[in-house]
Amino acid sequence: MMQRRNMILGGFAVLGLGGWALSSNMGGGSGSTELSNLAGAANAQTTSGDFDTSSITEMVLGNPDAAVTVVEYASFTCPHCAAFHSGAFKQLKADFIDTGKIKFVYREVYFDRPGLWASMIARCGGQERFFGIVDLIYKGQSNWARAGEPAAIVDELRKIARLAGMDNDTIEACLQDAEKAQTLVAWFEENKNRDDVTSTPSFLINGNKHSNMAYSEMKELIDAELGS
């Protein structure tokens, strides 16, 4: 289990980036959305008991007390996730999140190390900046995820962080937080195993799992849960 976890986390002595970040032999996102199709990361396991995953903040929009909860599982290197956030998510936000009809929860999936690095950057700005940084990451996905070598990918993610208003010291502190990286991977494994997450984007609508779908279908499912 520890060996497989290290496929995502890597070692701890490479290029001054907390090691885990730049020791990857993986590329920056293959375009596949199936966990089973990703070598190494696909079968990664972790012992979540080694880490206090309760320290990971749930990223939430909308009404925390809503009768309907929609959970999205997404990978920052997944093109289908980027497409969802540039299209259907905007409709979901206007129809259900901004109106307080649902609680929306975003949970990251780590197909590969670049997806983990992007998550570290997104979370670096805290809860208030998270969704704005998520938007920037997805908008720039075709650039940063295909930048080539690990160092080039991380440099592109740094640019996104600076665009979001973070200073260099803050960015480097987040990227070098190896304990946070390990805890995030443990948290992802808990979520994946509990909710049987096998592809992205995946959605839980009041606990019922659904794969990627047209917004019209999602709206119909949510309306049914709302009783409207």
Task: Explain what the structure shows.
This protein is an alpha+beta fold and 228 residues long. The chain has one domain (29-219): Glutaredoxin (3-Layer(aba) Sandwich), CATH 3.40.30.10. The protein is 47% helix and 11% strand. It contains 10 helices and 5 strands. It has helices at residues 2-9, 79-86, 88-97, 113-124, 126-139, 141-144, 150-163, 168-175, 178-195, 215-226, and strands at residues 59-62, 68-74, 102-108, 202-205, 208-211. The protein has a 5-stranded mixed β-sheet with strand order 1-3-2-4-5, sandwiched between helices. Strand 4 and strand 5 form a beta hairpin. Helix 4 packs across helix 5 (126-139), helix 4 packs parallel to helix 7 and helix 4 packs across helix 8. The longest helix has 18 residues, at 178-195. The radius of gyration is 17 Å and the shape is globular. The protein starts with a helix and ends with a helix. Mean pLDDT is 84; it is low at 11-48.
List the helices and strands and how they pair.
Layout: H1 2-9, E1 59-62, E2 68-74, H2 79-86, H3 88-97, E3 102-108, H4 113-124, H5 126-139, H6 141-144, H7 150-163, H8 168-175, H9 178-195, E4 202-205, E5 208-211, H10 215-226
Parallel strand pairs: 2-3
Antiparallel strand pairs: 1-3, 2-4, 4-5
Helix pairs in contact: 4-5, 4-7, 4-8
Q: Given the structure, what is the number of helices?
A: 10
Q: What are the segments in which pLDDT stays under 50 over at least 5 consecutive residues?
A: 11-48
Percent strand equals 5-15%
As laid out across the biggest beta sheet, the strand order is 1-3-2-4-5
Counting structural domains, the number is: 1
Radius of gyration: 17 Å
Mean pLDDT: 84
Distance between the termini: 46 Å
> According to CATH, what is the topology?
Glutaredoxin
Q: Supply the CATH class.
A: Alpha Beta
Shape: globular
Please trace the helix and strand order, writing H or E for each element: HEEHHEHHHHHHEEH
Helix content: 40-55%
Number of DSSP E strands? 5
Strand count, sense and barrel status of the largest sheet are: 5 strands, mixed
CATH superfamily: Glutaredoxin
